[in-house]
Amino acid sequence: MTEKLYYYSDGERALGPNTLVELATAAGSGDVSSDILVAARGDSEWRPLSSLIACGATTHGEVRSVNPRASGARNSPQRNDRGSIFSFIDSLTGLPRTKNLAWSKIFLAIFRVHSDDDAAQAFSPQSDSIGTPWVFSRILIWGLLAGALFYWALFEFENTKLIPGLLFFSCVTIPFATVTFLIELCGSSRVSGYHVAKALTVGGVISIVMSLFLGELPIIADFAFTPTIAGPVEETAKLLAVIVISRAWTNANRVRDGIVLGAAVGAGFAVLETAGYIFDFFLSPILYETEQFDVSTLTSTTVLRAVLSPFAHVIWTAITAGCLWHVAQGRKLSFDCVSDSRFLRIFGLVVCLHMLWNSSFGIPMLEGLAGYFGKFLLIGFVGWYVLLQLLQADSESVPN
């Protein structure tokens, strides 16, 4: 029989799981207090660790010794054996350390032959474990092929009726594939297709309009509006859009539900923003009376925004929404959740990532384009790491 696993509370969040022997060992070595509250999955209440140790409540008998050398605990709470960059991010977020994804399993799933029934099954509710995404790769491949075909046909046949097709696939493909990846990863999310569609469309529009409204507020308009200032404005607007469209969805109250909803709103924002940039290029010959399109600038902007989209708006909003759901812990969203220090800490981190993204700074150790574009990869890495931390926290949360 598998030994019972317990979670323990540090006053703000649930950590673990650990066996009772491991917790007792940690208490004996002073890593945790013997008075911390613990609970196993399915327990109705939290109990002091000392009371469980006294009762010897393990499936292997009483816990008689808490000598760390004798027990050789393999997973002692609070032990930090990660590299410095991981430790730094962990200290910033206050979330449990994330585990590595089964990338080899995902890679094999992508190249495996699947049927339409397999694709439908990928979006059905699964266990609390992290899913194995593969459907996103089909959306990504076919979308990129369609975009490339429209791009070639537009300049080959000079038929302006092809512009909407190019615009659609250039803006939508990679953000939507990223959202699909997260839906598959959050296997047991209770967010339906209707929720995702509404978050993409209505949420995207609300977030764009809200960012314009916030940008016109006196406290913000008094400053010179720069790309860096767009960080706090746009992240606030997207989060408000998530709250507005999901306020009545009481069943979608888990962290992974917030992640999916936030990703969908972020993708909607990214699609509309990129569409605006592309449309500007097609209007420039009229507005500035030039003789032809600036093809090179149009292509570089479209490709760059498409390639970098999985590291920007989609995951930033997924993180802030997931963190808000994490703080709420199944309760109705309120001002207390938004003002909670755990949420403000991670929201502040996302805003800083956005501001650094929009800034002209690069990685100091690298020169030229390597330092500038390396910045985007580093910011994207931090964002995905925090997102996986939230998903890990959801998988390890203790039910009420």
What do you see in this structure?
This protein is mainly α. The chain is built from 17 helices and four strands. Strands 2-1-3-4 form a four-stranded antiparallel sheet. Strand 3 and strand 4 (47-48) form a beta hairpin. Helix 12 (255-287) runs antiparallel to helix 14 (313-328). The relative contact order is 0.10.
Given the structure, what is the number of helices?
Answer: 17
Order of strands, main sheet, comes to: 2-1-3-4
**Residues in helices, as a percent range:** 55-70%
Distance between the termini: 24 Å
Q: Specify the oligomeric state.
A: single chain
Q: How much beta, percentage-wise?
A: under 5%
Radius of gyration: 24 Å
Tell me the number of strands: 4
Query: Which regions contain 5 or more consecutive residues with pLDDT less than 50?
Result: 57-82
Instruction: Give the rounded overall mean pLDDT.
Output: 81
Shape: globular
What is the N-to-C order of secondary-structure elements (H for helix, E for strand)? EEHEEHHHHHHHHHHHHHHHH
| Largest sheet descriptor | 4 strands, antiparallel
Structural class: mainly alpha
